[in-house]
Amino acid sequence: MTDLPPFYSLRLADDIALQLGLLTQLLAASSEREAAHVLSRVLDYDEGLLGRVTELVATGSRFAQDRSQRGVLPPEVWLALGRAANELNTVGADLSEHTGTIKQLTEPAATPPSQATRPAGSAMVVRRHR
């Protein structure tokens, strides 16, 4: 990677952030099937976006660990990045249980929609507090 122009990584990070904003807008406007395709790819923990972001934060944590041990960064920075990587990993594991269900929405329905039993919506959403 020594052939890359200086600060290429900064431009890449900005471009990725911009692309994520665009993806968010497209997801909001997508059909159910297209949104399911996008979400199943994003949430694929091995190859998807969430797993890659988790790897990125974990790499940042190792960077901060090294700098913290040398006295360049306060240990709180390392601990915060490590905690964030662990939380992302936990969230990724929790969501990976549901990616199969989301992926089912990408497949053509076996029965016509008028005969299919649709899951009932729930008025209650349970949130985990950590």
Describe the structure.
The protein is an all-alpha fold and 130 residues long. It has five helices and no strands. It has helices at 8-29, 32-43, 49-69, 75-96, 99-104. It is globular and about 60 Å long.
Mean of all residue-level pLDDT scores: 87
Broad structural category:
mainly alpha
C-alpha termini separation: 39 Å
Strand content: under 5%
Could you name the ranges where pLDDT drops below 50 across 5 or more consecutive residues? none
Order of helices and strands: HHHHH
Describe what is shown at a glance:
The protein has 130 residues and is mainly α.
Give the topology:
Elements: H1 8-29, H2 32-43, H3 49-69, H4 75-96, H5 99-104
Helix pairs in contact: 3-4
Annotation keywords:
single chain, 5 helices, 130 residues, globular, mainly alpha
